[in-house]
Amino acid sequence: MKQFVKLQYQKTLILHKDCVDKIQQVCATIESIRYSIHAGSVDVRMLMFIQEHLDPFCDLVALMHKDGTIQRQVTSRLIHLRMKEVESYNKLSKIMRRFLTLCQQFQVDTLDLKDILAKDTDKLQLLSICDAKAAQTVDASAIYEPCIVPFKSYQRVIEVVGRNEQFLDSIVFMQMWAECQQYHKRPFTIDEILNDVWFPTEFRWRLFGEKLRYGNILVDDVDRQLPSSFEEQDEKLEREITVFV
Question: Are residues 23 and 78 in contact, defined by beta-carbon separation less than 8 angstroms?
């Protein structure tokens, strides 16, 4: 395909009209996709497809803009930045899904968050998940940090849960979290879940880990906090303990 486009733009060979028409259609489609990537209107599924065929796509775009207005490296870098936006959205989505699972044990209004996470990521336009204009003006030497729009109102959750996501892999932490349910029967806001459940649970978890590390703990307390499922499963127990370190 690249050779046909090259011949068409160089006009070194007279091609059959049907062939020319097909090439022009392909070129129009490629240009439309390129512009959608630039503007941020491209959907995630299409972006992923282009990423899988990055080199031929960038080569074709460069051939179609032989005047140098669209350089190959510029197209490649922009696609790289767009992929970083998708990766950032997916990373935050994972954190928020895990937080949502935690909230299910309590009465928390998470309807808006559920609506956000229920959307099919592949069908979303970049414009709907990030500030797509930001990537258009990023300096080549700058580190790009995408601004993910759907979760802007959940920044505190992202900061608290995101930096301590390893807690959610701790059976002890999750056990302590579940124990809070018996003390809290009232409805919560998102902030109250953090203040009244997350932070007290984190404090208990860290205190238990500190005592366990230095041996300043009763055997009965260890037996009570470490589930019986750890018995004769050294690897599982070691993995749990290393989370404290």
Answer: no
3-state secondary structure 11-34: CCCCCCHHHHHHHHHHHHHHHHHH
Q: Is 108 helix (H, G, I), strand (E, B) or coil?
A: strand
CA-to-CA distance for 26 and 8, rounded, in angstroms?
12
Q: How far apart are CA 230 and CA 234, in angstroms?
A: 7
Nearest to residue 190, comparing CAs of 157, 219, 152, 166? 157
Instruction: Give dist(CA 10, CA 236) in Å, integer.
Output: 65
Q: Which of 176, 46, 55 has the alpha carbon at shortest distance from 122?
A: 46
State the CB neighbour count (10 A cutoff) for residue 124: 17
User: Does the model's pTM come out above 0.85?
Assistant: no
Please give the structure tokens belonging to residue 212. Answer: 């366990």
- How many domains, in total, are found in the chain? 1
Distance between CA atoms of residues 115 and 118, nearest Å = 5
The range of the structural domain enclosing residue 174 comes to 164-245
Span 207-244, pLDDT tens digits: 887 877 767 765 666 666 665 555 555 566 666 666 65
Establish if 137 belongs to a structural domain: no
* Rounded CA separation 11/6 (Å): 8
Q: Give the DSSP per-residue string, 55-108.
A: HHHHHHHHHHTTTTTS-HHHHHHHHHHHHHHHHHHHHHHHHHHHHHHHHTTSEE
Distance, CA of 182 to CA of 196 (rounded, Å):
13
